[in-house]
Amino acid sequence: MSRYLGSRLKKIRRLGALPGLTKKTKKKKTGVESYRRKKSRFRERSQYSFRLKEKQRLRFHYGITERQLFKYFRIARKAKGTTGLVLLQLLEMRLDNILFRLGMAPTIPGARQLVNHRHILVNGRIVDIPSYRCKPQDLIMSRDAQKSKTLIQNALKSSSRKILPKHLTLHRLPYRGLVNQIIDRTGVGLKIDEVLVVEYYSHKT
């Protein structure tokens, strides 16, 4: 399944807040559409539907394909520790997500574009792979090119983030981010029940 390129508002109306996907928020519905949505809430939902929704929220927030998410799940299942936590850590430590959490990009798709266009340096070297797995003590900054600096400066100026998660540090002038440690559960930026995601894939394998 390819990466989603459709309406982002449509997804957040269906799945709830997805800060990594878009800064927009869903609008309040009225009339017939509002009635239909309220009516659908009273329908009995299966356990499968709950698991599927959480899996979809995880996938669309981080902007990855179904194949990529399943690959991360298999890695997490083989690793030491709780599968759900390891899965979240793998996703959170992606370079595109780190840029988003630092405020260097407005969304994860925006961060992916920065990386793909070779605007980002990791430890002084250009990295153009959004899925690059960041490690503790990695230093992330823009290239010396004026365009690269301007893109990141504009994103930081418009960012509403005032407090960064403790696994990240942002230095200003020049703008650069430092990965302090592997993220813990409290630092995850998405409200998600990862246990349901693990159960979803466990029933698939």
Shape: globular
- The CATH topology of the largest domain is Ribosomal Protein S4 Delta 41, Chain A, domain 1
N- to C-terminal distance: 18 Å
β-sheet strand percentage: 5-15%
The major β-sheet equals:
5 strands, antiparallel
Tally of helical segments? 9
Proportion of residues in helical segments: 40-55%
Q: Class of the largest domain, according to the CATH hierarchy? A: Mainly Alpha
Question: Could you tell me the mean pLDDT?
Answer: 86
Number of domains: 2
Output the structural class. alpha+beta
Biggest sheet strand line-up: 2-1-3-5-4
What's the CATH superfamily of the largest domain, by name?
A: Ribosomal protein S4/S9, N-terminal domain
Instruction: Provide the low-confidence segments as ranges.
Output: none
What is the architecture of the largest domain at the second tier of CATH?
Orthogonal Bundle
- Radius of gyration, in angstroms, nearest whole number: 18 Å
Report the strand count. Answer: 5
Order of helices and strands: HHHHHHHEEEHEEH
Describe the 3D structure.
- With 205 residues, the protein is of the alpha+beta class.
- The protein folds into two domains: 98 residues, Orthogonal Bundle (Ribosomal Protein S4 Delta 41, Chain A, domain 1), CATH 1.10.1050; 89 residues, Structural Genomics Hypothetical 15.5 Kd Protein In mrcA-pckA Intergenic Region, Chain A, CATH 3.10.290.
- The chain contains nine helices and five strands, in the order H-H-H-H-H-H-H-E-E-E-H-E-E-H.
- Strand 4 and strand 5 form a beta hairpin.
- Helix 4 crosses helix 5 and helix 5 crosses helix 9.
- It is globular and about 55 Å long.
- The two termini are 18 Å apart.
